Amino acid sequence: LHMSEQEDDAPKQSQIPGNQRPPTAEELEIMDEMIMKMSKASIIELSNAVRRSLRVVSSPRFFVRIVELMDLASDEVEKKRLSTFVENLSTSLNAVLSNAELQLDERAQELESVVKAAAEPDSGEFLVPLTQERVQAMREAMMKVEPECLDEGFLSTVDMWMNKSHKDGMDGMVGILQKVLQLYAGLKVSRERKELSKLVGAAVTGNNPDDAKKEDEGDDASQLLEKLLAMDTDLWGAELSENADLSKALTIEVQRTMEAVVLGMENGSMAQKVIAEYLRELVTRIETVTSPAP
Fold it and tell me: What is the pLDDT of residue 145?
């Protein structure tokens, strides 16, 4: 999630973690699974799948992988199915991208409202590093954005702005956009945790999740995690040090959250990558606090 300093070399591609390197064996396996499922889908199902994983399926690497699978296929029927899939995918992509351009304009306005909150209210200048007041203002601005608008289009817009800012040498804006990703991840995870808690409570009681009352705040580790999700990542170290006795329970809580939230997301989506990176960083910070000094 770009919590470390940016490299000096100009980026060649995306600034979202996981989009800047060749795919790993695990990612190739996920890609193969996506190709198999999507190649067997109807046109309507394919269009929906393309919208959910636009960044992945529109990448040249995804099409290269389809060709690789065609070359590996020994069955002519399989080769034909994949060949037809390429044609259908291209058609669906063209249709989705036409609508995506309009959506990105809307997402750009929403991202702009969050970024503007990082500016000093008196001068309108962006002073980096941001003060805690500005970070909190950004979070409040993001909370005003409709949850359904914090989607792949929003993350794609952040990625594009970050990439351009890096190329233009605007390191301060890159840092602000990194903060946007961190705030997005914390807010998204917190909302998903609350929704899952409601569903679990409803399953136990037999009530409608929408009718569920405020759930119990949970144990100390759960409360601490919620506090961390709502704060600036720059403050994690101090908070974790003050609650070092909860480190083991907190690690378990984070791992449970990763299993419930991250694994439930669309494979290969930008949201999955950003949130997985965010939670992995939190685990690393916890381990730093608990590891003995050299």
Answer: 97
